[in-house]
User: Fold these one by one.
Assistant:
Number 1:
Amino acid sequence: MYNQNKIISIRENIMEISKNNISWIETWETNKSHNIEVGFDNHKLLKGFISNNVYPTLNNVPSKEFFSNLKKQIPKLYIEDEIIYAELNCFIDNEPYKIQFDYAKDCWIIKDKDDTIIEKR
């Protein structure tokens, strides 16, 4: 049953990105809030907002597939740039967390509000 729940969770994360629930913020829109950042090898930084960033437990946070699909959703202006990392600010069980994904290492780190590493995957 656990594996089936994990598969459902992965499908939901993929659907979340594929529905274009992400709004990219233009560089001049400095007053807009964001909960996702994408960093590139040339030091460019792309910010965005994902409407659903609340998860009940650590087991429900976005998967690697989520970040792979995120990479496919970047604006055309950034297509030539190599993505180094993505960081999602989210809430897990009503507490603020950061999920940092490293594209070169294909892994991510979950940190709490004090930047303490909670989990590496």
Number 2:
Amino acid sequence: MDGREKHTQLLKLPLLALASAAFTMLGGCATHGVKPEGGAVGAIIREANGAPPLVVASEPSRGSRSVQPVVSTGQVEVWGQRLKNSKFDYPVVVNPSVEHWLTYFTGKGRKYFDKYLQRGRYFIPTISKVLKQHNMPQDLVYLAMIESGFNNSARSRARAVGPWQFIRQTGQRYGLTVDYWLDERRDTRKSTLAAVAYLKELYQEFGSWELAAAGYNAGENKVRRAIAKYRSSDFWEIARHKFFKRETRDYVPKIIAAAIITKNPEQFGFVNPFNGKGEKNPTLLASDDKATVADDELTPKELGESLAKDEVSDDPADKGDEVASSDDDEDETPDAAAVSGTPNPTMTPSIYMVANPNEQIIEFEIKGPADLFALSKASGLPFSTIKVLNPELLRWCTPPTMKTYRIRLPLSVKDRFLATYNDESFDRRVVFMQYKVRKGDNIQKVAKRYNIEGQPIRELNQFDLHANNLRVGSSIALPIPTGYKRVIASMYDEKPEKPSRRRGRRHRRRHRQTSEARHDSRLRPSLGRSDKTG
């Protein structure tokens, strides 16, 4: 235990009515309002009347554990000054690890955090509402902030997707549809419901929101092994060791730092995204110990892959849409698609950025499948805006397997959209490419030829789930549109998983050996050539 840690007070805000017992202090603790030695500033948490630090009841038995959060209004000090908003329902600790990220987010990482803070204007109210409805700490919204930077289309190299960064298997495990047409990991509300279910399970097992967050990041098995190895259910105690990877050890401090800054943006020099303006003379909080985080450590990579990975583009419509080549010499016979009935508009919270930041978004229940380009034309909005508002849709149309779909559009286009889309003369058809089966064809071969999956072919043609044979001369519909724009819009392909480091080294070694062999072959005379010339 070093001097900084020894003099740092680790007092947690009460999260639950039935939570952990009295808090542990590392060595001597600082007195109220006095900065400890070594430049580290601990969290000064006390009642408004100056009473001693808060203590909560002992932990109940595992079977009766509740997730009902209790909001604390205790005072928190950062860098010697009180926070104006100290209302948290997630365990808040201010220690060197948290200060590290407070310094980064308000320093070299400010441009990143400011972007996520502005996005929070749309995401925080919606996610917090779902958390509240399920009796979960609303401050868990900052877990999503750290995971994705509040980006519906964020995607990691491990192929985790959406604001809560679910991998495919975990998303499906908690009820999210992930297929050729639809990726509900990108749907803010549905992915939040899945995250609620997962986090609730983690808390029920570990009895700690810090360990639940660590389990969300590293996996529950990793946390189980850590608890068994160190015989502790205290995240901070386990984090002192290097059993967790650095990403996981930093994960909880990032969440706490994000919560502190987002609830007190003006004190940290940010514009308050919820009122659009800052104080005239804000009292800015800044670390007086600039050496606490070395310059060589302050890189965007330290935000975690999930924070920096979306910086290629801010438009979710630009994420992962890659054009795959296909044979265009096949017979194409447009077929008449189902025409949607009258869209039924319903109100939904505004959680997506549009041209007008104050725009309200509503949902229209439309008969499927619906062509997104037709929706774009009827509403007068660019196709990219339709995609931004409905990021879970991966192709140019709504899933053909769904009879109706709830599409999101701005309230300002409601009248125009309803009038145009419901006009009998308006072309609402969804046309799929028709393919004439040749000798030797089967579903998998046709799918491979067009760089698509076999399952949507089965679904579109109502084939058996495991069917593969095709009748020669018959015509089948392919989940490919007719028209260049729609082809581009429908081509979506996930990047392959990043190979392990060990595998990468073997690959590089083989590549180096192959390169050396090629180099040697250039130096050696060619026997074949000498035979021909001799």
Number 3:
Amino acid sequence: MASTKVQRIMTQPINLIFRFLQSKARIQIWLFEQKDLRIEGRITGFDEYMNLVLDEAEEVSIKKNTRKQLDILILKSLKRGIRGYNLTNN
């Protein structure tokens, strides 16, 4: 039986973020310091520091099994995780 070798290609994180932006894919972000909380949304913008702007954002609580609508959210990338800013009047 002939074996086939699968070639794996490393993708830079910034390129992956750009691909998600182009495809308008809904993404889920796991927060570093809040293990039971996730943020979901579509990337509408980002910069070279991997700060993100998410549209249709939702805060997903794993413990409580709840979702909270956030609309537009800015996620600031930090060395120890991500800090979020809600741009709506909630």
Number 4:
Amino acid sequence: MNKSRQKELTRWLKQQSVISQRWLNISRLLGFVSGILIIAQAWFMARILQHMIMENIPREALLLPFTLLVLTFLLRAWVVWLRERVGYHAGQHIRFAIRRQVLDRLQQAGPAWIQGKPAGSWATLVLEQIDDMHDYYARYLPQMALAVSVPLLIVVAIFPSNWAAALILLGTAP
């Protein structure tokens, strides 16, 4: 496939995301919240290790930080689960709309045009190829936004404690 055709198809795929933009935005937001929770988990673990190793505080005195760490793990698991559900709903909604567009186009073309290809190829197009688009909308598009926002969030979280490390991370971010 040549580059111009590939760009045209990519543009068409992105245009179809407008169909379920609200669900995709919710998926992106949940991914961002998951990123915040990852940073919170790392912070709680670092604090616990600092207290236990550097300050020799007994484990019994660290019940609250351990509890907060476990709650953060549980909350993050719930957010990731919810993000998967929302992403699935977005992909399902978009696949339904694309399938409807294809069927409407086939109906407009008429039976004479449809008979130009075997019935199996039309079934493959309507069922399998459209279903193959699901992961693009449910996972790939939301992840593209997170690939930029989460590293910046990590840099913002690290900057107050170590500006040199934050600059290194900023320079090596995707």
